[in-house]
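Feature request, filed as a ticket because there's no other form

It would be nice if the structure record came with a short human-readable summary line next to the tokens. Right now we just get the raw output. Example of a typical job, pasted below so the devs can see what we mean:
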Amino acid sequence: MFVVFGGLFFILFGRILFIQLTGQVDGKELAKIAANQYEKHSVLQANRGSIVDRNDDPIASDTLSYHVVAVLSEAASKNSKRNYHVVDYEETAKVLAKYIPLEEQEILAKMKNAKEGTWQIEFGRAGRDLKRETVLKMDEELERKGLTGILFVEGKKRFYPNGRFASYLVGFAQKEETEDKKAITVGKMGLEKTYDKQLAGKDGKVNYQSDSWGYILPSTDKKVVPPKDGHTIKLTIDKTIENFVEEAMDQVEKEYAPQKMLVVVSDPKTGEILAMSQRPTFNPMTREGLTENWLNDAVEQTIEPGSPMKMFTLAAAVEENKWDPNAYFKSGSYKIYDRIIRDVNGTGWGTITFLEGLQRSSNVGMAYLLERIGDRKFIEYIHDFGFGKRVGIDLPNEAKGVVLDNYPAERLTTSYGQGSTVTPLQMIQAASAIANNGVMMKPYVIDKIIDPNTNKVLEDHKPEQSGSPISAETAKKVREILATTVTSDKGTAQKYNLPNYAVGGKTGTAEIPRKKGPGYMSGFGNYLYSFLGMAPIDDPQLLIYVTVQQPKLKAGEFGSDPVSKVFNPIMENSLKYLNIAPENEAEIPVKKVGNYVGKDAKTVAGLAQQEGFKPITIGEGGKVTEQIPAAGTKLTENSVVLLKTSGKTTLPDFQGWSKKTVLSFKHLSNLDIRINGEGYVVGQSVTKGTKVSADDPIVIELRTPEEQYNDKKSKEQEEEEVIMGG
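Raw output as currently delivered:
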């Protein structure tokens, strides 16, 4: 016995000694086994970067969502008085089917057919991205019926708060499963795809040691690697102007059901794209309306532009001193070698002046004008205006179009917009030279890219000139001539006349190439109707290009009807929103804002008040570090002037302020101001005179004049009913 037990002791001692020396059992490292058992880690989810407009209003961002998990393993309830796994499969499936888009039998099959030993299952896309309200209702019903084993795991989903809003520009992102079954958000289209790398955040993690029950051991330290949120992409898009675009397009789509539509709005002085949309379009949240076309038409598609091209032929003629508005030509037809081109009505208008020819959009007039310029010289101008090459916008897959220059007939048809192809962006860029006194501005849509983790600006795009194809004097003359296409009784653009602002531009009725075979489509309404316009014409603040393809016109209607119903409300509403003084208010006296930066706030506030302005000091006083509007800006009496100083801000009375002024206040003060609605301020959550910091949320309520009028009428009606009832 002594020998047996002694032998066993030495064997056991040797085994223990071996384990201590090698750290292995059966070839497996004990340290790794212990680490797997006791070392835990959890993921700290990073936010995908936000896409915001020029005023920091969200266009795409991450929001809280939930996905549903069914725990199937009985081991989850081991040693517990309560069940933590699914017990009643049938009843559980019945409840889940009410809240997620899966049939009851499908849910039941997923649970019953799970592999033996499976701890838990999910329900694919149907069980993901659930709203909090849905989860609360589902959880309440499960609890009420005593059903167990259903968990709701918190996560993130991509949120597009504006619905159908610049959808082909912004695109969309959606969750995809990796090989290790991890769900990640991936950009699939538009800016979401182009800037996917910048938008994608990097998850963090927490490592810690726990006991066998999962509790953190008190003697260990947690190792935290914080998440890094994706970059914020700030666009030049203005949410308010984009909404004007979407509303106008929706109305025309409903009334005329065109095959396609497109609108681009830009600031011709900077090249900033303020709005961009097309039809058909889609909702990026649901992808409803998304067709086989995934292209941003303003950037990736080319068209034959038609008559808006004539404004550049006109500009070339004026610059070359070949334009004589009072000279005559015979309209109707023009022969070049064996080819005859005709005016839109086939017969022309007899012998007319070149000015009338432009107003009537005569193709023959362009042919005679081309004789004066010289067709090769004309093509040089076309290239100087940026056609035939990419504008270089910060968006992918930009097309460049083709300028036909092989034969005299091709150069002739290019003069009135047929044959050669362009992109809508090229039209916007070229027209900026006319609107901006000869200086052509490169279009761009990304304002800044910001790292939200450090608030560091990684990219800061600035206005960039792309050439000077004409002089300032020529640009002014061309604008004056273009204005007559709207004001003249012979002008094709009479329907673009606005009551408050002078508009200039050029209409277009372009033939559409057949999809199969040579030639062009024919028949009533089978054209691409367009208008490239700017306003106010003496100093254009906005440039808008609208195209409407194959609308269903009623008898007696023309292509300018649907196009003007898009262009007019966008231009009128946008200019008012930008506080551009209407023509009929031009007699109202205005004063220039002084340069207040660097001066004492109290002193300049008194000076600004004497000049008829309403000064608002942001901060506690002292030297003015920044001001809005900038020095030299013309303002009417009682206009708000914001003066930024250091220290805490005392809230003013925002009543009656425009959204733009509130946004300027938010920018200078860096306060957490949240804006609800459009129009003018009718209420604020924090009373005037309160000292606030960046941590205090302030809600500002806005209403449009129409909404305020309707509210007033409703209140009056209610009071009248009370009186009559009494």
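Something like this underneath would help us a lot:
The CA atoms of residues 563 and 659 lie 28 Å apart.
Residues 2-41 form one domain.
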